[in-house]
Specification:
about 325 residues; mainly alpha; Multidrug-efflux Transporter Regulator, Chain: A, Domain 2; two-stranded antiparallel sheet
Length: about 325
């Protein structure tokens, strides 16, 4: 847990450093370490086995040096949250996806920090919430952090655009990845501050002359009365809320039977192929979401195309055997 806390503090220190160049890039790396260590601390305390096992043999996978392979941050987050489409899990998954995109481009994409700052702030707040809930407020980061000094107003639009123009093509490609990820999320996840934290900064006058009022107060909109919310709205003259209506039933209309009907294999074999290529780990192909008080589990048309492609190279006879053994192992309580 101490490692998790130190990594988070290092991430914030780096992000708030005015001389930092790779701001979001390195912040996400350090916060990924922080979250992974935090989840592992919780699992160790609770006796949760977070080892990765081979699906074929049931043996623990190993890494260099013979040590067991452990769950990555996404697997850990999904186990901890225990609910489908958790904003916390989606936040980590989104930023990790962006970090991977940046890492494989060989240079920094200028201007991307502006698009990621709300997600980075949400990531920190999620970490703090889990840390305090699991290990008491004694370990809170708030005792070591302060609100960073901020230059009033936004950067001029031409300044933002000029920084992006340096790598315009790469920026647009990365922005497309971000938009696609957002398009696959439900509205309640998109608007949840655990996925992306959005805040108003409104100049505040002192209540009394020569008084020592607090300079900064955090006001939760959910705690405001309708009249107070209206006052806040009236105080914002250039605010456009992020709104996107996404019908996941249209984007993910297919069940396993519907997939099998479009393939030259039966439903059980389709399940085996889905298992083989880990199709449920791909958010473009598979989603779990709430619909009319039920948990829906469905696939997209992209999933069907991927299954058709994979079917051409998979040895179905071998797959049937391995999937059958996997099913027997699960029924008998093995790994």
């Amino acid at each position: 847990m101490i490692k998790a806390r130190e990594a988070a503090l290092a991430a914030v220190q780096h992000y708030n450093n005015p001389t930092t160049v790779f701001r979001s890039d390195n912040y996400i790396v350090l916060m990924t370490i922080a979250f992974t260590s935090l989840f592992q601390s919780v699992f160790e305390r609770d006796g949760v086995d977070y080892t990765v096992y081979d699906r074929k043999t049931g043996n623990a996978k190993t890494v260099a040096g013979g040590k067991p392979m452990l769950w990555d941050v996404i697997q850990s987050a999904k186990h901890y949250e225990e609910v489908p489409n958790s904003p916390v899990v989606e936040n980590i998954g989104f930023l990790r996806r962006i970090r991977n995109e940046i890492e494989h481009r060989g240079f920094r994409i200028t201007g991307i920090d502006v698009d990621l700052c709300g997600h980075c702030q949400a990531m920190l707040m999620n970490f703090e919430s889990i840390l305090v809930n699991e290990f008491t407020p004694y370990y809170s980061l708030k005792t070591s952090l302060a609100l960073p000094l901020h230059l009033s107003g936004d950067r001029p639009a031409q300044t933002v655009e000029s920084t992006r123009d340096v790598h315009r093509k790469e920026y647009e490609e990365l922005k497309s990845v971000m938009n696609q990820f957002h398009a696959n999320l439900e509205d309640d996840v998109l608007s949840d501050p655990s996925f992306c934290f959005r805040v108003w900064l409104i100049p505040k006058s002192a209540n009394r002359a020569k008084s020592s009022d607090m300079s900064i107060e955090f006001v939760r909109v959910d705690d405001c009365t309708p009249e107070q919310r209206e006052q806040l709205e009236n105080a914002i003259v250039a605010f456009k809320p992020y709104a996107q209506v996404v019908d996941l039933r249209e984007q993910y209309p297919l069940g396993v039977k519907a997939l099998a009907d479009e393939l030259p294999i039966n439903q059980w074999e389709t399940q085996a192929l889905i298992w083989e290529i880990k199709l449920r780990d791909d958010p473009v192909c598979y989603r779990e979401f709430r619909w009319q008080s039920t948990n829906a589990k469905a696939f997209s048309h992209q999933a069907l195309e991927r299954l058709r492609s994979e079917l051409e190279r998979v040895d179905m006879a071998d797959l049937r055997k391995r999937f059958s053994e996997y099913g027997k192992s699960r029924r008998s309580g093995g790994r």
